[in-house]
Amino acid sequence: MLVIPGIAAAYGFLLMKDAVYDYFAKIGDINNSSPDFAWGMFIGGAILFLIGIGFIGGWIFFRDRKHNYLSSRFRPKVPRPPRPQRTPQTNDGNSPQDANSD
């Protein structure tokens, strides 16, 4: 299942590498006065690389989430239970409100 995205990512990396290598090889050629960069091949390779790596990374992330291997910041948020109701305090004369009533 992960072989196809892995091959796509590897092929995308090769396309990007070849585009950069060909550009530098054209710079060193004396007969070529203005080398051009193969943007189509580079962008296509970048898209294949990012899709393949993104799929593999997402698959690993969701597998680890299912087995509860993730750090606490990646776990789903669990809402806090509501606070228990406070009972009214009896007026014993020691509260700050009683000190201000003088």
Summarize this structure as a short list of keywords or feature phrases:
102 residues, mainly alpha, 0% strand, elongated, membrane
How would you characterize the overall build of this protein?
With 102 residues, this protein is an all-alpha fold. The chain has one domain. Helix content is 57%, strand content 0%. The chain has helices at 3-27, 39-66, 96-100. α1 runs antiparallel to α2 (39-66).
What's the gist of this structure?
The chain contains three helices and no strands. It has 102 residues and is an all-alpha fold.
Give the % helix.
55-70%
H and E order:
HHH
- The oligomeric state is single chain
The count of β-strands is 0
Q: In the residues, how many domains can be counted?
A: 1
Main beta sheet, described? none
Low-confidence stretches: none
Distance between the termini: 79 Å
What does the overall shape look like? elongated
Contiguous helical run count: 3
Question: What proportion strand?
Answer: under 5%
Structural class: mainly alpha
What is Rg? Answer: 32 Å
Overall mean pLDDT stands at 86
Biased composition (Polar residues): 89-102
Region (Disordered): 73-102
Transmembrane segments: 37-62
Organism: Cohnella cellulosilytica
Helices and strands in order:
Blueprint: H1 3-27, H2 39-66, H3 96-100
Helix pairs in contact: 1-2
